[in-house]
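Exercise: predict the structure of this protein bound to adenosine-5'-diphosphate.
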Amino acid sequence: MSSAALLTAEGLTKRFGGVVAVEDCTFSVPTGTITALVGPNGSGKTTVFNLLTGYLRADAGTVAFAGRRIRRPDPIRLYRAGLTRTFQQARIFPDLTLVENLVVAIQQPWRTIVCRAIGRDDRSRAFELLEEFGLVQLAEARAGSLSYGQKKLLEFATVLMAEPQLVLLDEPTAGVNPVMVAAIETRIRELNARGLTFLVVEHNMNLVMRLCDPVIVLDHGTKLAEGRPADVRNDARVLDAYLGA
Ligand SMILES: Nc1ncnc2c1ncn2[C@@H]1O[C@H](COP(=O)(O)OP(=O)(O)O)[C@@H](O)[C@H]1O
Ligand SMILES: [Mg+2]
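Solution:
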């Protein structure tokens, strides 16, 4: 496993009015890892994702991806460059089929919706992913008809259409039943074994401890600890942040 950073954030800061959501946050995601970003509710995890992926503009700080400084993070450009993310509330198109959801992810949405023009390569890649994600029998079903957990799986599959290098997952298993949690964990492991790097926001500490290394801990928008899972778990400041919250 290479220790070179695929993504680096330095001094990230974001205020919402008087609230400092993220404060002077510096961390990196080493290439080839499944890195965890954990912390109590409201500690700034989703805001960090929004800053990294260009959904929010930072008040201060810099982000570098694959060795290049990203001056103005833009979701679509980053997606094409190999950095993509999922949302805490899965974002899918409920009225499109599963295949269409995958295909619009890498096309101009209007083209697929208006013309129903799906390229053959995109379509076969979409079916491949649906197969891998155990959703292929639902390929032509409306995405809106899926269960909560299946929607999260579909969104996960969707972000893989562009063959990214780094995937940011925001609470991939929250509210998902244990069978689906196992399915998501397996997908993450297999994709990681094939070289994909992950940054995962996750509340299930058992899952974090067995899946992720390193673990970054945020508290009140600031990095509190960073390291191997066992070290972080035994860090007194981390215990305070969780138990004293
Ligand atoms: N768009 C926003 N406007 C105002 N405050 C926000 C906004 N987004 C997040 N916050 C605040 O920033 C802090 C961090 O939130 P968030 O990043 O969602 O935390 P987490 O994902 O760790 O639960 C919280 O205090 C939250 O209320
Ligand atoms: Mg969040």
